[in-house]
Structure formats: C-alpha cells, structure tokens
Amino acid sequence: MSDPDRLKRVDALLEGLDDVLPPPRVRSQLRLAANLTQQEIADAVGVKRLAVVRWELGKSNPRRPQRQAYIHLLKRLAERFPEATEPNEDMPTPASVGGSG
C-alpha cells in the first residue's frame, strides 16, 4: 500500500470520530474551564439541566439533534481551553481506581 493510500485511510478513520464524545470527566472540566453552568449549557443545547448533569456523570449521552450541538460546543471549548482536556493529577484515572494491588 502506498503512503497516499495510508494517509487516506487515516483521514477516513479520523472523520469517523467527529461524532465521538469525550469522556464525562472531560465534559465537565471543559464546562468548568469556561466558567459555564450546567444550566447555560442546557439552554444553549436545548435540553433540561438534568440532561447535562447526566451527560457529565456518564449516565446518558445526548441524542440528535442535541448531540451535534453538544459535540460542537465541546470541540470549541477544547480549542479555547486545551488544558482542560489534559489529565488532572487530582482526579483519579480509570487505572488508579479499583486497580490491582
């Protein structure tokens, strides 16, 4: 396989990730970094605040058309606050919670 073909396959793989949500912890960190409330997010996306609470806890995920609006919001927040998507030393990671030992 040639290099251009490999690059096309990689691009196709990345395009498929446009509809993927970040982990719940990152969702709330992005909101907090922007100093936004759950109600403000809910109003902008067109849902009740409880829906945003559940999304940030990982209890549920947004459905269309709110999903696209929420993903767009999170991407824009990630561009403005890249530090919010970095691992936080104060927050436990999945490997450190319930790990072997």
From TrEMBL:
Source organism lineage? Bacteria, Bacillati, Actinomycetota, Actinomycetes, Kitasatosporales
> Which residue windows are coiled coil?
none
User: Which SUPFAM superfamilies does the protein's record reference?
Assistant: lambda repressor-like DNA-binding domains (SSF47413)
The record lists the membrane-crossing segments as: none
**Protein's UniProt name:** Helix-turn-helix domain-containing protein
HTH cro/C1-type domain boundaries: 29-62
What SMART domains does the record point to?
HTH_XRE
Q: Which Gene3D superfamilies does the annotation name?
A: lambda repressor-like DNA-binding domains
Where do the record's region annotations for Disordered lie? 81-101
Instruction: Say which domain of life the source belongs to.
Output: Bacteria
InterPro entries given for it?
Answer: Cro/C1-type_HTH, Lambda_DNA-bd_dom_sf
